[in-house]
Design brief:
about 230 residues; about 15% helix; eight-stranded mixed sheet; 16 strands; mainly beta
Length: about 230
């Protein structure tokens, strides 16, 4: 009886080895194939928006620690803040970046504390729409500041980064003070009027009535000439 059992086991083992060899020879495998990886796709969270009415000719004050900012003219004399987090933060977290957003009389005061590390994603994008005619007082610690289409006095500062002001009219400015500690000043209003070695500075009077004071710690300061087209 034991010899017959042993013989049966040998036959089963031989059949199993034969099947495995046949599977290998035709390229198949007894092991199940790995299923294809499915890349999960999540919806991009919508930007956070704060919008308040504001009188034309008012002053907008912005203080922000880090990130890139665009300042654009509002179509309806509102001050409108849009923050695109570029990462999957919940709404409460994004709202917490806005420490202050107040509009009183003829002044808007905005204080933003943005995240310094966006966990491998692109930095949040901040866009601020303001009345096209009004004054600006803006301070940015680290990042790029770009201003387009705003007529009025401007007091601007960037610690580390580039500052660009697109002029609405080349003749709209009177007293202009521009300086960088380390970086270039590119100014079509006063070509060749810059002084300095590592940094540049200039101070001159134009024919307009708006005042422009802009400073950069480390980075470039550029005035983009008016394009009538």
């Amino acid at each position: 009886m034991a010899s017959r059992t042993l013989g049966f086991c040998c036959v089963v083992l031989a059949a199993t080895v034969s099947m495995a060899a046949a599977a290998q020879s035709d390229g198949s495998s007894l092991a199940p194939a790995n299923p294809p990886r499915v890349k999960l796709k999540f919806d991009q969270p919508p930007p956070m928006v704060i919008d308040k009415p504001m009188a034309t000719g008012s002053t907008v004050v912005l203080d922000m620690n880090v990130g890139d900012v665009k300042i654009l003219p509002s179509p309806n004399n509102h001050v409108r803040l849009e923050i695109d987090p570029k990462a999957f933060y919940d709404a409460e977290t994004v709202a917490g970046w806005v420490h202050r957003f107040e509009v009183a009389a003829n002044r808007a005061t905005i204080d933003l504390e943005m995240p310094k590390n966006n966990h491998g994603h692109s930095s949040p994008e901040v866009t601020l729409y303001v009345p096209a005619n009004g004054d600006l007082k803006l301070s940015l610690g680290v990042g790029d500041l770009h201003i387009t289409g705003i007529r009025g006095d401007k007091d601007l500062h960037v610690g580390v980064g580039d500052l660009t002001v697109a002029l609405s009219d080349d003749a709209e400015y009177g007293h202009v003070v521009l300086s960088t500690h380390i970086g270039d000043v590119n100014d079509p209003l006063n070509p060749g009027g810059q002084h300095g070695f590592l940094g540049k500075d200039e101070d001159f009077n134009g024919k307009g009535h708006y005042h422009l004071r802009a400073t950069v710690g480390v980075g470039d300061l550029t005035l983009v000439p008016h394009d009538p087209s």
